[in-house]
Amino acid sequence: MENKKTIQQKIVDFKRFGFTLLALSVFMYLGVIIPTETVTPGKIITLMTGTVILLGMSLFFFTKAIKYKKDLQSADE
Question: Which of 9, 16, 34, 42 has a CA 20 to 30 Å removed from the CA of 76?
Fold first, then answer.
């Protein structure tokens, strides 16, 4: 099994990736809900698809961080 410092670094990295992707998805969603004259249905679909994909990736990274945190806690016991 990997050492504790490496696992702790992975937890921090996965959380950082998750928060970055979450922030990016918020900005993309704001592009959908703020009305402008140049927004076409194709752009809305693209922005919403990107938002959903980024939220899914963010969820993936947060679950990986939780998994590694549980592994680290079980290794301590």
Answer: 16
Between CA 77 and CA 72 the distance in angstroms is 9
Confidence (pLDDT) at 1? 56
From the list 54, 51, 57, the residue with the least C-alpha distance to 14 is: 57
pTM of the model: 0.85
The whole-angstrom separation of Cα 38 and Cα 2 is 51
Residue range(s) defining the domain that contains residue 51: 4-76
Cβ atoms of residues 72 and 50 within 8 Å = no
* pLDDT tens profile 7-17: 999 999 999 99
